[in-house]
Amino acid sequence: MPGTDRSSDRRPAIPGRRRLLAGLLSAAAVLAVGCGQPEAVAKPPARNAEAPLALVYNGPQGCAECGPAVADLLRRAPQHYRIEYVGPGTGKPLTAAVLAEAQLYVQPGGGQDLDRTWQDLDDSADALRAWVRNGGSYLGLCFGGYLAGRDPGFGLLPGDTHGYAGSPGSTVPDERDTVIEVSWRGKPRHMYFQDGPAFRLDEGSNATVLATYTNGAPAVAVTPYGKGRVGVSGPHPEADASWYDEKGLANPDGVQMDLAYELIQATVSR
């Protein structure tokens, strides 16, 4: 994406919070599921010619093109989606009524300040958790993966997140845009990466790890949350050729969307 600075995926406002000390967070830090909020129920997949609806957050964030990039991916996916943008500035707030019409909600990358972004999302958190718990699907990419965690975040994971860059055994020493190798279902693949999270999943959880970083930490995972599902990725499976061109990077596998499509399908499947 020429002219787009994806360095906004960095987390300067919360230094170290998701890194090695993240595991020390107490259970009390988990955001409580609200009581008395409207129980948004996910709409079942469309059974007619109309494509299912995906809501893509496109509120204030550092990467203006991250939401549109995900929207384009979803329109071209094997299961085509209709797209509506939600969040401050879009004219469509993220509410229980809006969620009830959708099959999928996407929190894309591009956030610069997790605490500041959470101020825009906090009022919607109870409605979103209720919607996923009742059958909705949450997809979080990079910054959206961090937001699936907690303190602050939606608290949708059986565990939490921490920064992969600079962690023990990491192949990424800093926050620059790069291409990393992951093990995707046991096979080496390469993905676009910019300071995304790794996932610290509770032992015995029902999470399915689709990919791990070279140090063994989960890089891409799908986990149940009530009747719904949560898919998260530290790398950017949605990155198209323009992302690589802009930063002078090359993917040894070629730029392919199959990993993104597999993650989407795993997130919405029941």
From TrEMBL:
Gene3D superfamilies: 3.40.50.880. It holds the Pfam family BPL_N. Residues 55-150 form the Biotin-protein ligase N-terminal domain. InterPro entries: Biotin-prot_ligase_N (IPR019197), Class_I_gatase-like (IPR029062), TAT_signal (IPR006311). This is BPL-N domain-containing protein.
